[in-house]
Amino acid sequence: MSSSTGSTTPTPASAEPTAQRISVVIAEDSVLLRDGLVRLLGSAGFDVAAACPDAETFLRAVQEHQPDLVVVDVRMPPTFTSEGIKAALVVREQHPGTAVMVLSQYVEEEYATELLASRTRSVGYLLKDRVADTSDFVDALREVHGGGTVLDPEVVAQLLTRARHADPLASLTPREHDVLDLMAQGRTNSAIAAQLYVSEGAVEKHVSSIFTKLDLPPTEGDHRRVLAVLRRLEQEG
């Protein structure tokens, strides 16, 4: 007597879907650290498409490989100032789908601010000397790749200090400075337009931009032109 059952053939373990490997391009001028990163990320399951000693070859590698993630040092050849983080900004602009992790000994405040200004997703900034555990670093890379933001507390502290001491007048364009100077002389928009040989509409746009950059929203009581001039005079004093 025979019987049949509705059993199914088990799927071999090798046929199970595997997690997608994250492709990475590294920019690091120190050969020891570069090779160390390649070994670390390779052992953690990342695909290291390229490891570059300078910003120029790094950007070429990004263009060629279109990685999921880049790990970038700040100071690289030839001047060892800001080539690396400038390259990271290029990646953010030209390859918005690529996550960016800056790994450096330094906090380049101006460029770090710019790096975070457009969008805060899929970006990180860690200090080499403060990475105490390689597994934490790998976890940080995965978080950035997943759309998260990972910032060293020291980076956050320095950026907050910079923001508190930032001079809003420094954000004005040269033409906006000209307009503000003439406002300080009591000129009307039409008089400013005549002085600068531009239309009155252009002056109105400059004035509106000045109010925005100096954080002077419309109010019922305060005259924004006076407040803008006071900001200028405070800087001179």
- Estimated share of beta-strand residues: 5-15%
> Could you give the count of β-strands?
6
Provide the structure class: alpha/beta
Task: Look at the structure and give the CATH class of the largest domain.
Answer: Alpha Beta
- Low-confidence regions: 1-18
- Could you say which overall geometry the principal axes of the C-alpha atoms support? elongated
Enumerate the strands of the largest sheet in spatial order, edge to edge or round the barrel. Answer: 2-1-3-4-5-6
Q: What's the CATH topology label of the largest domain?
A: Rossmann fold
Spell out the helices and strands N to C: EHEHEHEHEHEHHHHH
In the residues, how many domains can be counted? 2
Separation, N- and C-terminal Cα atoms = 106 Å
CATH superfamily of the largest domain: Response regulator
For the record, the CATH architecture of the largest domain stands as: 3-Layer(aba) Sandwich
Radius of gyration: 26 Å
Q: Largest beta sheet, briefly?
A: 6 strands, parallel
Q: Approximately how much helix is present in the residues?
A: 40-55%
Query: What does the average pLDDT come to?
Result: 85
DSSP summary: helix tally: 10
